[in-house]
Amino acid sequence: VCEGLSPLVLALLDTCDRTAPMSDRGGLARVDRDRLGRLVPLFAELDCEAASTLLRRVLASVDPRVASLAAVALASRGDLVGEDRMALIARDPEARSTLLGGLTAIGRGFELPDDMRSEVALAEAEVVAYLAGRTQLGAPPDEIEHRGAFATPVEWGRGITHVFAFRVRPPHWSAPRGWMLAAAGPFEPDAELMPRRSQGFGVCSLYEAEDGYELSRHLLEMSRAVVAARGSDEAA
């Protein structure tokens, strides 16, 4: 299996490495990253030196979103990933989301640097991963800034919600709106060591201009959208 799939993984990796410095909105790199996301975990289950060698090659990718896949796979095999390399990968919010999800699932979230597993870092990772989805912006925002932590509106849930401002450069359809807002929450207010999502956790953006009205109203409107979406899912 390893011998048969390795050439495919390396070909996909080459595409991602060559296109990583460029925008991948609608590009081939995103498709190939998705394919790698399905293949790389398989190599974590293969008990052979060739699998480890291939995962080390993926870990060296210039695209942190690809390297994060290998970091989680290697960790799940019990292999060590250098602290410096882990910290470098985690600087990318999308990659950080993969690392936090994968490492926490196997009880190794503590391997990330403290500043990369804080509540704000997790919230930012969740927001960027959400915005990059195909049904949202289709790519991570060009800029993102933390606007603060707030008590979650009661209809959304109990805990702390983090609000971020983001913007995207032209020719993206959202560029004329300038700074927009997104929220992630609620988080458990009394969590220790690792941040924890509270019941009803969600991420939302209505893609409205930040200066349209007060931040508190933005948060309230997003909370209502989360609750409405939750109700639709439960009805389905």
Give your account of this protein's structure.
- The protein has helices at residues 2-19, 28-44, 49-59, 64-76, 83-90, 93-105, 119-131, 215-235; strands at 143-151, 160-167, 180-187, 197-204.
- It is of the alpha+beta class.
- Helix 2 (28-44) packs parallel to helix 4 (64-76).
Task: Summarize this structure as a short list of keywords or feature phrases.
8 helices; globular; 236 residues; 14% strand; alpha+beta
> Helix fraction?
40-55%
H/E element order: HHHHHHHEEEEH
Lateral arrangement of strands in the main beta sheet? 1-2-3-4
Structural classification: alpha+beta
- Which value, in Å, is the CA radius of gyration? 19 Å
Tell me the overall shape: globular
Short summary:
By secondary structure, this protein is of the alpha+beta class.
Blueprint (SSEs and pairs):
Elements: H1 2-19, H2 28-44, H3 49-59, H4 64-76, H5 83-90, H6 93-105, H7 119-131, E1 143-151, E2 160-167, E3 180-187, E4 197-204, H8 215-235
Antiparallel strand pairs: 1-2, 2-3, 3-4
